[in-house]
Every structure is written in structure tokens, then in C-alpha cells.
Amino acid sequence: MSGMPVAEPKPVPEGAESCDGCNGSGVYYGAGRIENGKFIGFSGPCYRCRGKGHQTSKDVKRNRYYDQHVRRLPSL
Ligand SMILES: [Zn+2]
Fold it and tell me: Which of 7, 51, 69, 74 could crosslink 45 through cysteines, CB 3.0-4.6 Å?
């Protein structure tokens, strides 16, 4: 598997919040690792900021809902 450079964080516009789902680049990295500065594994647009690298109040609300109702599945 070949690696890819880790995307740089983008500036956060005024009134927006930095994203807690990515490093601010809008790219989500999961199920992987960083080796020699390259990411190896799964990556895609960050679902928490929709690839923007920051969250608007709308995004924050959506994520809060998601965290409370979707991500935490009741234990079966
Ligand atoms: Zn993000």
C-alpha cells in the first residue's frame, strides 16, 4: 500500500470552530497510521466538517446530534 502526504490544516474562518474530527484539513484519516510523514490507510472527506476543515454552528449542531443518537449505539 502506498502512502500519501498528510493534508495541511486550513485556516478557520471567523465565527467557525476548529474541527474535532480531522486535523483541520477537512480530510478524515482512519484505520491507518503515519509512516515517515505519509499516511497509510483509509482517508476521505471529514464527515464532521464536510471536508471544510472547520465547523460552522450548523455543523456543530449536527455533530452533537450524531454523537448522542447515532455514534453511541446502545449495547445489545
Ligand atoms: Zn473535519
Answer: 51
In this structure, is the dihedral angle defined by the CA atoms of residues 13, 17, 67 and 20, taken in order, positive or negative? Answer: positive
Q: How far is the CA of 76 from the centre of ligand 1 (A)?
A: 30
How far, in Å, is the centroid of ligand 1 from the Cα of 43?
Answer: 12
Average pLDDT, 10 consecutive residues per value, the chain (76 residues) = 78 95 89 80 89 96 87 59
From 21, 63, 27, 24, select the one nearest 44 (Cα to Cα).
27
d(CA 65, CA 12): 22
Q: How far is the CA of 52 from the centre of ligand 1 (A)?
A: 7
The domain locations on the chain are: 16-71
